[in-house]
Amino acid sequence: SIEPGGTIYSYPGCYEDFLTIRNQRLQRQRREYEQQRKEIERQKEIIRRTHAAKGQKARLAKSRQKALDKIVPLPAPPPEPGAMRLRFPEVDPSGKIVFQVNDVTLQPGGLTLLEKASFSIARGERVGIIGPNGCGKTSLLRVLAGYDKPFSGRVQQGFRTLIGWFDQNLSGLTMGRTVLEELAACRPDLSEQALRDLAGQFMFSGDDVTRRVETFSGGEQSRLALAMLVIGNYNTLLLDEPTNHLDIPSREVLEEALLQFPGTVVVVSHDRYFLDKVANRILSFENRTLVDEPGTYSELRQRGRIMKEVPPPEDVKKDGKLARKQQYQLRKQQQRSVESLRRRVAELEKLSEQQQQQIEELMEKMADPSMALDWEGLEQLQVQKKALEREHEATLAEWEQAAAELEKLEGMQGGKTA
Fold first, then answer.
1. Pick from 50, 82, 100, 171: most CB atoms within 10 A?
2. Residue in 216, 209, 221 with CA at minimum distance from that of residue 180
3. Residue from 23, 87, 82 nearest 200 by CA
4. Spatial separation of the C-alpha atoms in residues 161 and 140, rounded to whole Å
5. What φ, ψ does residue 285 adopt, rounded to 5°?
6. Could you tell me if 271 and 243 are in contact, meaning their C-beta atoms sit under 8 angstroms apart?
7. pLDDT tens per residue, range 303-335
8. In this predicted model, what pLDDT tens digit does every residue of 348-378 receive, in sequence order?
């Protein structure tokens, strides 16, 4: 096959195999291109934030610039034909309270993830659930959906609550069925032409509608799962990592559709940009509890929980209640905090560089022409890369918090160094 730009690819198998393998390759190429572009923008944002800084932040800026200079831009993939069109219909409203959760404990497999959590979700709210990997986000979503029961406590669904479920593993799709068969299973009352029209809105046209589910890429399967949500007439959507397999245009279409959705949305996502767009309330897993925060993800980060501040010696002098020995002890405590933070900042900088190097090495492996048709190997590398990127993001977030606290404490010391 001669592709745009003159590159020639050879594919094994018959014509149907060619269509499937070529589509998988193009989807992977688009995904890698989008991920690299996102990584470049993230590095530029870090450099921008630390450009005028000194000390720890200046070192990080130089390190990030070196990492950015090493990135070899991937060629832009051929554009996907058309764009997904997604619009949720008007639905019958649920009752005022959609979920009432009382003293719920989650303990799957004997491991306690959440203890005695209580909250309610009202009609029309858009709630984001966040937390580290393995903390219980999906478990909580499944309990809300009624698929699993809590270890203890009670979850009550409100009056006329009709739940549409999106599973990050796309387990709601039935392998062996065609696109038309999947849609017809959701709405047997619709004509074949109506189902074909709907499939077309999600970029399934022509012979695509008679292809089996398993022949499609992850992104295409995600679009099919979204189509099934649209025709279900649900007034409450529970979404577990809905953007995982979507390209940027499809993700933006989903964001806008959710903003216009007249019902209630509860979403688990690691995509902070997506959360910023669709969620106006955040439930955050922290030490087996849920912290309920109004506002967007960015607003929550801006309010952030910083390390407890050590009272400055000046305040002690003004107070006049502490003896000179106590003042000395406070200064020593503050100095120990500064030294500890300096060590932690240095450790995080080193860890960040190591993680970035590992990400770059994985990207080089994925770009190797010898991997072009090794789908299983590419999938494994992709999983490793995603995990590393999440770890790297967490490292940078912790570094920013520690560096900011260090600057504050050093400022209290009048700029003195240890």
1. 50
2. 209
3. 82
4. 17
5. -75, 120
6. yes
7. 664 233 333 334 433 444 445 555 556 566 667
8. 888 888 888 888 888 888 877 777 677 788 8
> With a threshold of 0.85, does the pTM exceed it?
no
- CA atoms of 110 and 44, how far apart (whole Å): 43
- Tokens representing 237? 């959507």
Positions in the chain whose pLDDT score sits under 50: 305-322, 415-418
Write out the E strands in 231-335: 236-240, 264-268, 281-286, 289-294
Instruction: Identify the CATH number of the domain in which residue 194 sits.
Output: 3.40.50.300
Three-class SS of residue 293? strand
User: What is the distance between the alpha carbons of residues 361 and 45, in angstroms, rounded to a whole number?
Assistant: 22
Task: Give the separation between CA 313 and CA 331, rounded to whole angstroms.
Answer: 7
* Same-domain pairing of 203 and 327: no
* Calpha distance 184→68 (Å, rounded): 48
CB atoms within 10 A of CB 202: 24
d(CA 345, CA 350): 9
CB burial string 46-63: b at 16+ within 10 A, e below: bbeebeeeeebbebbbeb
Look up residue 414 and give its two tokens: 């009048």
Whether 222 and 248 map to the same domain: the answer is yes
Could you identify the residue written with the tokens 């990030």?
Answer: 64
Domain of residue 292: give its range.
Answer: 97-302
